[in-house]
Amino acid sequence: MLQVAYIREHKEEVIQKLAIKNFDAKDIIEELIALDEKRRKTQAENDETLAESNKLSKEIGMLYKSGNIDEANAKKAETADLKEKSKQFGQTLSDTQDALLEKLVQIPNIPHESVPAGKSEEDNKVISQEGEIPNLGDNAKPHWELVAEKNIIDFELGVKITGAGFPVYRGKGARLQRALINYFLDKNTEAGYEEIMPPHLVNESSGFGTGQLPDKEGQMYHATEDNLYLIPTAEVPVTNIFRDVIVKKEDLPIKCTAYTPCFRREAGSYGKDVRGLNRLHQFDKVEIVQIQHPDESYKTLDTMVEHVANILRELGLPFRILQLCGGDISFTSALTFDFEVYSTAQEKWLEVSSVSNFESYQSNRLKLRFKDEDKKTRLCHSLNGSSLALPRIMAALIENYQDADGINIPKVLIPYCGFDKI
């Protein structure tokens, strides 16, 4: 979340920049500033009352020592009034802080100055495109037909066991899935990321820390009996490793990678690109997370984008990089680049990764800080990206590498699979 002091000192700038995200911030920011003024005024009055109470207590002690018992008892009545007054101030302060936080979590992150205006994904800006789109001819089949023929992914069995959006991988399909996971993790660890195996359920504090909670769109699966949430991405548990932590400046950047299954309700997406692996409720993903110094975070973002691009180059998949516009960038992100691979049989681009800089937005929620050269405590910047999400990578590989004899395996994956064709 944004810092109240920054909003107060740069009110018009914040309102103007949030308009790029199609968010009308004027009214809520006016309400927030009014609450902050009330909080500051109440805090000052409470501090004054406590100081007066402390002063009076010292006077009472001196009066008792000097034998002025009656005067001391009279002043004790005054201290009782001051304590009651301070208690009321404390309650007002608590209520005001709660109201302030309620407003604050409704305000999205400020977009980076380079984020283009736009209403939807149609307005995203294509930054680059690489790779040759294969010519498969008229007999090319979509992945859902190919996997059924080869019996490597069973969508109907997933429906039987759980429901739509929960496929069962089997045989060489399961081997290929595992090969991709291991390959992605190896590429990430070779680049200096520490591998993490985090929990797949998180508590409310963790969901709040990275911005998934409050869950306004109802996208998270909620285990209500224990009040835990199934993770929509490894970003949530991995970034929360550093919640309420002051890291050492010399330890920055901190680089982590994790493979996890991910769970998303995908509310509101029914009928939208849902065939086969295109949109699932449970899917595998390998994530990269960095905690970085604010002065270095945008250089780091560029490095992370290039890291993901190199993996796609090795896989031999045609891909493009898009800069998300204000209408498509997430609530918590300041700047996001999406990767899409081309699915030749479907004749469409499929999103496989988002790489984002959240600046201090998550860190302010997480209370993730470091001490600078002047020993001043500052908020870190957090970044993350998919490296990579598996379902659409699998779909593109299966479709783009098909021929009359089956499905070829990219050279880089053969050592991981133990076979070169399905």
Describe this structure in words.
There is one protein chain. This protein has 422 residues and is α+β, with helices and mostly antiparallel strands. It contains 13 helices and 18 strands. Strands 1-11-12-13-16-10-9-4 form an 8-stranded mixed sheet. A hairpin with a 5-residue loop joins strand 14 (369-371) and strand 15 (377-379). Helix 5 (143-150) crosses helix 12 (390-400). The radius of gyration is 27 Å and the shape is elongated. The two termini are 48 Å apart. 36% of the residues are buried.
Tally of DSSP helical segments: 13
Number of strands: 18
Overall shape:
elongated
Q: State the secondary-structure class.
A: alpha+beta
* Percentage of residues in DSSP E strands: 15-25%
Entry keywords:
422 residues; 13 helices; alpha+beta; single chain; elongated; 18 strands
Topology:
Blueprint: H1 4-9, H2 11-18, H3 26-66, H4 69-104, E1 125-130, H5 143-150, E2 153-154, H6 155-161, E3 168-169, H7 172-190, E4 194-196, E5 201-202, H8 204-209, E6 222-223, E7 228-230, H9 235-239, E8 246-247, E9 254-263, E10 282-292, H10 297-315, E11 319-323, E12 335-343, E13 348-357, H11 361-366, E14 369-371, E15 377-379, E16 381-389, H12 390-400, E17 402-403, E18 406-407, H13 414-417
Parallel strand pairs: 4-9, 8-14
Antiparallel strand pairs: 1-11, 2-3, 5-7, 6-7, 9-10, 10-16, 11-12, 12-13, 13-16, 14-15, 17-18
Helix pairs in contact: 3-4, 5-12
